[in-house]
Specification:
Layout: E1 2-6, H1 20-28, E2 32-36, E3 50-51, E4 61-62, H2 64-73, E5 85-95, H3 98-105, E6 109-113, H4 124-127, E7 130-134, H5 144-155, E8 188-189, E9 192-193, H6 203-221, H7 233-240, E10 251-256, E11 260-261, E12 267-268, H8 274-286, E13 291-295, H9 299-313, H10 316-320, H11 322-328, E14 331-334, H12 337-348, E15 353-356, H13 367-373, E16 379-384, H14 391-394, E17 399-400, H15 415-427
Parallel strand pairs: 1-2, 1-6, 5-6, 5-7, 10-13, 10-16, 13-14, 15-16, 15-17
Antiparallel strand pairs: 3-4, 8-9, 11-12
Helix pairs in contact: 3-5, 8-11, 8-15, 13-15
């Protein structure tokens, strides 16, 4: 594989790419690294490669002409296909991961552009078929360190790079999961023993143990990877049995029937809906919420709610459908939001953070941020009926979640559908 690196600081690569397996790969010709400094194609005594940005602002921007000359000398011609793939290292690019490393490893040639200063003149992407790639959500002084990560992750997948061909296949991320733990001599060190299964000589048991340990580590540290792990039913059962944090125990939701808005944006009270009660209760149970409050100021509505829940919790429905009973047991009827807050405060010893939901306007708290809040305090999620929560309800809240489909043209989900989506975004298994 040939890799052309366009960089203002080629010396950054001298030591990291001249040791270990990478050095051996370069000597053998498996990896051909070539460095191209845009300064070399500039004229004038200072060999200028940057200038001030149009519109003002701090920092400098890399000049377009030296970069364009360097790329064209390598065979890149405007937006036409060129030699291999042209990678532009940028924090706004596609996230670099093992899958992308595998894609790059199938190429015969890569060209990598390392940025500096405030970045590139944006017209570079209009002139050449660049692919923006990011190594993570953080800022570096330049693209050289990011390029080192990309080169090593890609090169080690080339046949012949690793000493043992299975090494690359069995490492973290290769099978959608983190790698299992490794042990070597001595068998006992300061009272800590190598697991007996690894000393058993039973290769089937060792393989099974390694897979379980890989899944255990992934569940604890990077559960987001498990969607790609190709889990069997047995592996799902294994993961289900692992102890783990249950943040839903600190999350409460309230279906508010007053104060809410009508179509004329007046503050009103609306009637209970059987379907909403059932479906939100089932979602609350599925995601492990602590309780589901139904807020209405009307005594006859509260009595109707008691009758509905009673049928499923202690009446004939409890015997015919125990799953429905378990969900409806979470329902608490209260006459006001304040009564729900009081009940949660008494139960948790701490007042909850009230978080509103709205299909309109901007949110002040993201779903991941709300999940983190659950580690510190109880949270009461207010779900509005009618045409949404009234201003007096919103005024009680310390935060508002963003609309579920703020970028869409149609944003009118039923409250029960929206509730399920929000619970999944906050408490989904792999979050």
């Amino acid at each position: 594989m040939r890799i052309d690196l366009i960089t203002l600081f080629p010396e950054c690569f001298d030591q990291p790419l001249s040791c270990g397996l990478m050095q051996r790969a370069r000597v053998s010709g498996l990896v051909d690294l070539r460095f191209h400094n845009p300064r070399s194609v500039t004229v004038g005594p200072h060999h200028t490669v940057d200038d001030r940005p149009y519109g003002g602002g701090p920092g400098m921007v890399m000049l377009l002409e030296p970069l364009a000359k360097t790329l064209r000398a390598l065979g890149w011609r405007d937006s036409a296909p060129g030699p291999g793939r042209l990678i532009l290292l940028s924090p706004r690019g596609r996230k670099f991961d093992q899958g992308l490393a595998e894609e790059f490893a199938r190429e015969e040639r890569l060209t990598i552009i390392c940025g500096r200063y405030e970045g590139f003149d944006a017209r570079l992407e209009n002139l050449f078929p660049t692919e923006a790639v990011s190594v993570g959500d953080f800022v570096l002084n330049g693209g050289e360190v990011a390029a080192l990560s990309l080169i090593e992750a890609t090169a080690r997948l080339l046949p012949g790079f690793m000493g043992h061909e299975d090494s690359g296949r069995e490492e973290s991320f290769s099978a959608g999961a983190l790698e299992y733990p490794h042990y070597t001599r001595p068998e006992v060190f300061e009272g800590l023993e190598v697991p007996a299964v690894l000393r058993s000589g039973n290769h089937a048991e060792i393989a099974a143990w390694r897979r379980q340990e890989s899944l255990r580590a992934t569940s604890a540290q990077r559960p987001d990877l498990l969607d790609k792990a190709g889990l069997s039913r047995t592996e799902m059962d294994f993961l289900r049995g692992l102890p783990r944090a249950r943040p839903g125990r600190n999350l409460f939701c309230a279906l508010v029937h007053h104060p809410v808005l009508d179509k004329d944006e007046k503050s009103v009270a609306v009637s209970l809906t059987n379907l909403d009660i059932h479906d939100i209760a089932r979602s609350s149970c599925s995601y492990g919420l602590a309780a589901f409050y139904v807020v209405t100021p009307f005594k006859d509505q509260l009595a109707l709610l008691d009758k509905l829940c009673g049928h499923w919790v202690s009446g004939p429905g409890a015997r015919s459908n125990p799953d429905r009973r378990k969900a409806l047991e979470l329902v608490r009827g209260v006459e006001s939001i304040a009564a729900a807050v009081s009940g949660i405060t008494e139960r948790c010893g701490q007042a909850p953070l009230l978080v509103a939901t709205s299909a309109q306007g901007a949110g002040s708290l993201g779903f991941e941020d709300l999940r983190r809040q659950l580690n510190e305090r109880p949270v009461l999620l207010l779900l509005g009926t009618g045409h949404g929560l009234a201003p007096e309800a919103l005024d009680l809240c310390g935060a508002v979640l963003p609309p579920l489909r703020w970028a869409g043209e149609y944003n009118h989900l039923s409250v029960r559908a929206a509730a399920a989506i929000m619970m999944d975004r906050i408490l989904g298994d792999w979050r």
